[in-house]
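User: I'm new to structure prediction. If I give you an amino acid sequence, what do you actually give back? Let's try with this one:
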Amino acid sequence: MSKNKEKDLRLWDKGKSIVPFATRSQKLAIDLMKKVGMKDCIIESFKEGKVLKTNCLNPLSISLENLTEIDEGIISELDKNGLSVYHVLLSRFMVGKQTEIQCEHEVSKYEKVISTTSYLCVPKDILTEAMTFDGDITNESNRELVIKEYIEHDLFMANQGYIYSYVVSDDGLTDFYYIGVKVLNGEMLRVS
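Assistant: Good question. You get back a string of structure tokens that encode the predicted 3D arrangement of the chain. For your 192 residues, that looks like this:
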């Protein structure tokens, strides 16, 4: 007797055929944006093929902006390297932040404040990306399971407030890592 295996709808197109990896990545990006609570206009713009930038350098005046030529160049390079950018976040970050409690108030000390541009991205080919992070995964591995676990991990991280990004800081450093984010009234802020 064969066991009925329920199909993961994030991998399958209405139960008929497996979703192409580019479409799957777009769906993952949309699911991540929904998971953290981004504005519907940002999600709709991405669905239409337009990436927007949130400028939260001043947390009291957060705005959506169009991409600059520099942003478009970086997104193009990331695209060539197999990553799809779904949103850009311009923010400030406190380097070496230490929080202390003084007289019932929280006081933060830090080395310096830098501006960062975070390119929120997902891999175009999830299986290949999963293989780079886990040496135990091979082409013979259960592809569906590997992709499903990768998607679930990214959604779990988003639920915890962490989004995978390529971060460029104004002091010239660049790297890939999860950034901490919060969404207030649909506006995304970087918190760590």
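You can read the tokens as a compact description of the fold. Here is one thing that stands out. The longest strand covers residues 83-95.
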